[in-house]
Amino acid sequence: MPALFPLGAPCWVEIPTSDLTTTMRFYQAVFGWQYELRDDDDKTEYVVATVDDVPVAGLRHSPDLALQWNLYFATPGLTSTLATAGRLGAQITERGHVVPGIGTKSLVTPPDAAPVGVCEPSTDWDFQAGEPASLGWAEYVTHRPHHANRFLGHLFEFTQTQFAYGHQVEYRVFHSAGNAVLATVGMDRNTPRQVPPRWIAHFVVPSDRGFTDTIRVACAFGGRLRFKPYGSPLGRVAVLSDPLGTRFAIMDPAPTMESRDDDAEDD
Predict the structure, then answer these.
(1) Which domains does the chain have, with CATH numbers?
(2) What is the pairing mode between strands 224-225 and 198-204?
(3) 3-state DSSP call for residue 219?
């Protein structure tokens, strides 16, 4: 496994979609992604999104509507990590799916939680993050942050730091090899229990388009702004959904610290 990716480092992001054509068109308009097709180990079509010929995300067909993008975190030994997930009470919901140039990936789902991706990168692994039009940050939003913190902390041997800002009850940042890699966010106590937990993948705005214009293009191509944009330690953030309802966020890392002021109800 490449030394760049210790246990728990983000190493892939993927969207399952019931309408691959609509999803590809939308994210190409918003982020300028180009696409290439790869045959996975099931001999089914797998789409890899690229920026300047470097992979930034995966897209695959699914019969169901997806609430979230799936985040995958690196492991040097997939079998061992899956065994640990099982001991922590998780079910394996995707087992050993091989994507050429990426690696072997699985999804595990803890009780009453959103799926968590684990991936053993291949020797020819290639993935760009932290750059314009690519994954910049990941947040796991849940009613039960203490359970999520325990599961993620044990599974990936993360160190943790807790913060509080805006109206959030709890915001905990996880570190792998000294680098911040994700955060868990406690839902407001007034959030209805039927609102499911989810990952929110944050993508950096394209280099040739500003924050406001990125929102405008997303809405013009069928997306929806879920909350009023807000400032955070990450910079300027807006949470949106794509035309099929899958949540994601855009971020402009320019430094800012404003309190969050939602003007829409989560659902």
Answers:
(1) 10-121 (3.10.180.10), 135-252 (3.10.180.10)
(2) unpaired
(3) helix
In one-letter notation, the amino acid at residue 60 is: R
Distances 19 to 70, 151, 243 between C-alpha atoms, Å: 17, 32, 10
Measured between alpha carbons, how far is 267 from 193 in angstroms, rounded to an integer? 10
Q: The tokens of 193 are what?
A: 């229990």
Which of 107, 81, 79 shows the shortest CA–CA distance to 93?
107
Closest CA to 27 of 201, 242, 244: 242
- Rounded Cα distance, 41 and 32, in Å: 28
How confident is the model over 28-60, as pLDDT tens digits?
Answer: 999 999 999 987 666 677 999 999 999 999 999
> pTM for the complete prediction?
0.91
Q: Where do we find the tokens 């699985």?
A: 106
Quote the CA–CA distance of 98 and 78 in Å, as a whole number: 12
